[in-house]
Amino acid sequence: MLLPRPVLRPPLSHLRSALSQARRARGVHMLRDLPPVTHAQLADTDKTRKPRLLPIDGAPRSAPAAFSPSHHLCQWTRPPESVLLVQKKDDSRVQAAMAEILGFLTTHYPHLRLIVEPHTAREQSQFPNLTVFNEITDSPVKLLDNTDFVITLGGDGTVLHASQLFSRTECPPVLCFSLGSLGFLLPFKVQDIDRALHYILGDGEVEILNRMRLNALAVDSQGRTLSRMPESGWQVMNEVCLHRGRYPHLPSVDVYYNNQHLTKGLVSLRAVHTKLTTGGRLPPLYPNWINSLLIIGWRVAHASRDRRRHADPDRTPVIVIPTTGPAGRRTSEARQVSLDGRDVCELHAEESVLIRKSIYPIPCVDQPGGGTGWVRDINSTKH
Prior knowledge:
By secondary structure, the chain is α/β, with parallel strands linked by helices.
């Protein structure tokens, strides 16, 4: 009786080597395979580490974290070398625009490293030399070190996703193309791709509008950062939400400002600073007019005008402490902290969240000359 010949399988290391060779053959690289930043580069941030888009109007020549939340005329310290392209998923119009941008950059700026997410690499397989960033496996610091600016294609949610990719760090300049239903955060139309790319990649001045972000930091009763949180906290573009999560009871919270008790309630509490409405309880808001958190019922919101109580997170953090359970009783139930729609951690007894203005805004590339193009976008959406 003849026994079946055993199937010889190559070692796992050989399979990984073959996969790596296949990636190199088709020109696709992984961000994690790029060399790390050296100590010398970290010590010389203005020249060696990476190109920066810095103010030329007398502002300090430092990271974008030093910018005030207003317009700045900026210029590259040297030509940018890499760009992260972020797109809305499962949209044929966005896919076509992404193909146009990749083709333009490959033709006119072949020196640029093009960093994309895995779904973009799959959809745009006709383009060689793409560098793939995986949000789950790659370090956000590695992404920041290798990204000089960001291009977004989609709606406001795509800008929010780009902000989340840099939620633990400063955010590079963001060039936003409007392919969604609202252009509040998206100053450039997709028809202007060529002009916009020459604008940000040229030698001239670039208009930057720094959009405020919140900083949320979870601490224990001694004010020490929780081990499950980044040391610098999370940078939040839209909202901080404290909710009951999987537990049956709503959280009871105490809110403090400037060491004074501000309010208390048995509610789901939300801190919002870029809330935009066109006919609801709040007026349309421009997120750089007033850097404040406004208490609306049991909601905390960023508003331009209202007669109710508000706090200034630029000066003092707003402290939110889950204190009691139903009917004022102490509870062991944890409370879920959600940042920009993502659950990040739970708060247990004697733990709290500090909410303040982040030192890391979102530097958005604006139309030349600034202006009020966002007003026209809002008005056109209302009709």
